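TASK: fixed-backbone design
INPUT:
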């Protein structure tokens, strides 16, 4: 005798969907009981680090360049002002020592003067040595010496050829011309007061001269009309314990501007290189992110529009980053969607086939009833009609419940379930006489408490289906054994295993998987035809699969190889 599954009074199988309901069904997600791989995504993931590095690289580099140029310019100005002051003090000291004094007959000093030829020679020689133009003012603020006009007339001018200027590379020359072009377009900044001009000979136009005549050393930064810097330092000239005049040193800031210009050209070159690198990195980023996402979006549109029976999603799993994870998830989602669509189509075909048989029988009985006049035959036809109507009602009820099962599983929140307690509560119903046969149901456990995550009502439904099925195939006076234990895989994954064994005829070897198909029915002859929908074991496997587990069947064998019963095994992850 072959084995089949028993009817599930309240639980049914895979959902039946047609028309608009089929579209809604395709939107269902995986059951919350299935354990999913947790991916570590966050701001410091592989892709996140790449994005931050690209965005921060240019900003930090350019910000550092701007700060460097500002500090560089300020440092150059301060250094040159300090050098002017140092040179000025040296020259002022030498001029003070060279000052002449007018002595009376009684050796009293009547006056000290800087307006002598000797003073001019000293100023000229020291200005040439320090390479700094200098002007000397007396106590009244009158210009008495200027280092630029102290070369005596009639002297030979010695000329020497200058070395050629340092040749710049083509790249630096190009960026230099580009920088000069941009600088010409921008207005001249007026950060400092206007320089009076090189031809100005009055001390009134240089306020620092009056500071020196009052005994204070002063420095001033000015700008010419074309924006060049001019640095001046004024130092008091002292001799014989009195202030004899004011020494004014002047330096053209062209060297500073040229140094800053060179640094700015270097920064411009670095900026251009940075922009090129940034563009290349952006292209790389677009290629590694935007392009795969675009391909997946196009494939998703094809799936949505139904172009082709099956659309293969692009596979980027080898990337080992978030795009690879997204590609894997898309592929798994698409495969699950197609599997669900196939299952819905197969279920719809199975439902149509199962409903067709009782409808055909019912139609034949009704047609025959109208033609038959014998009362005995008419009673038999009424019995057939009643049986077919009940069978249709049972099928429709089970199919309706099956269509809601998937949605219920997706909405149900998992909770801790004590397997031992659940088994005891289910077996108690058979001790109370639910089995309907003289078959005992016993429990064997290796632990007082075994915990899993799931829906206790649905797991209890699976146990009732399996026990009902085992009882229906067990001979009078036999027993059904329910065993629960904990197990562990080689990789450390913990499992809970539940076994339901009977002492019936067993299962044909070629039917070990067929018995889990929808509407598969092959009952003992003692049970009437059409009393079972053939959805019990299919529903049970669906529920166990939703919990991330497995349900399968095997025959129990005696030492001599004879089948002594069947064993159904449930494995649930801990």
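OUTPUT:
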């Amino acid at each position: 005798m072959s084995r089949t599954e028993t009817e599930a009074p309240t639980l049914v199988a895979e959902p039946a969907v047609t028309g608009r309901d089929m579209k809604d069904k395709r939107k269902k997600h995986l059951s919350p009981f299935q354990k999913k791989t947790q991916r570590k995504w966050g701001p410091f993931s592989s892709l996140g680090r790449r994005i931050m590095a690209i965005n921060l690289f240019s900003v930090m580099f350019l910000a550092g360049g701007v700060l460097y140029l500002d500090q560089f310019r300020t440092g150059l100005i301060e250094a040159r002002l300090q050098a002017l002051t140092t040179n000025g003090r040296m020259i002022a000291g030498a001029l003070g020592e060279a000052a002449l004094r007018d002595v009376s007959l009684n050796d009293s000093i009547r006056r000290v003067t800087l307006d002598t030829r000797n003073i001019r020679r000293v100023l000229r020689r020291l200005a040439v040595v320090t390479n700094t133009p200098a002007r000397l003012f007396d106590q009244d603020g009158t210009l008495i010496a200027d280092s630029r006009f102290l070369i005596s007339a009639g002297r030979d001018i010695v000329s020497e050829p200058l070395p050629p200027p340092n040749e710049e590379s083509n790249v630096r020359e190009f960026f230099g011309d580009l920088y000069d072009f941009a600088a010409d377009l921008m207005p001249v900044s007026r950060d400092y007061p206007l320089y009076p001009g090189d031809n100005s000979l009055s001390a009134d136009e240089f306020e620092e001269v009056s500071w020196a005549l009052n005994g204070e050393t002063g420095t001033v930064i000015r700008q010419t009309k074309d924006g060049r810097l001019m640095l001046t330092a004024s130092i008091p000239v002292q001799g014989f314990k009195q202030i004899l005049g004011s020494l004014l040193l002047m330096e053209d800031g062209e060297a500073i501007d040229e140094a800053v210009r060179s640094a700015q050209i270097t920064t411009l070159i670095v900026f251009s290189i940075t922009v090129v690198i940034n563009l290349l990195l952006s292209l790389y980023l677009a290629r590694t992110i935007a392009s795969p996402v675009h391909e997946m979006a196009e494939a998703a549109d094809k799936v949505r529009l139904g172009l082709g029976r099956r659309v293969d999603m692009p596979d980027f799993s080898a990337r080992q980053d978030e795009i690879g994870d997204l590609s894997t998830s898309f592929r798994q989602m698409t495969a699950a969607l197609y599997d669900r669509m196939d299952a819905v189509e197969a279920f719809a075909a199975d439902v149509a086939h199962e409903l067709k048989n009782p409808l055909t029988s019912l139609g034949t009985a009704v047609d025959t009833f109208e033609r038959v006049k014998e009362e005995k035959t008419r009673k038999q036809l009424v019995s057939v009609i009643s049986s077919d109507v009940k069978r249709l009602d049972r099928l429709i009820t089970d199919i309706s419940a099956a269509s809601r099962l998937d949605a219920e599983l997706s909405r149900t929140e998992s909770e801790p379930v004590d397997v031992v307690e659940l088994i005891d509560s289910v077996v108690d119903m058979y001790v109370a006489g639910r089995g309907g046969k003289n078959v005992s149901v016993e429990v064997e456990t290796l632990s007082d408490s075994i915990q899993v995550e799931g829906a206790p009502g649905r797991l209890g439904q699976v146990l009732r289906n399996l026990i009902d099925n085992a009882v229906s195939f067990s001979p009078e006076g036999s027993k059904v054994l329910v065993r629960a234990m904990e197990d562990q895989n080689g990789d450390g994954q913990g499992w809970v295993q539940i076994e339901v064994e009977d002492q019936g005829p067993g299962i044909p070897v070629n039917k070990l998987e067929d018995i889990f198909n929808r509407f598969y029915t092959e009952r003992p002859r003692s049970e009437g035809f059409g009393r079972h929908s053939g959805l019990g074991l299919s529903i049970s496997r669906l529920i166990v699969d939703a919990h991330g587990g497995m349900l399968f069947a095997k025959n129990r064998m005696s030492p001599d190889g004879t089948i002594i019963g069947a064993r159904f095994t449930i494995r649930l992850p801990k």
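COMMENT: The CA atoms of residues 150 and 156 lie 14 Å apart.
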